[in-house]
Amino acid sequence: MFFGMGSLSLGCLAGAVTDLLVSDLEYMAGQG
Fold it and tell me: What EC number(s) does the entry state (predicted)?
């Protein structure tokens, strides 16, 4: 996906993954 485009894209990818993890945690917390 973003590979080979520099550290900036890696940072964006890390941010997207973090957002997904946070959303998943919030969803699980709401289900609990």
Answer: 3.4.24.-
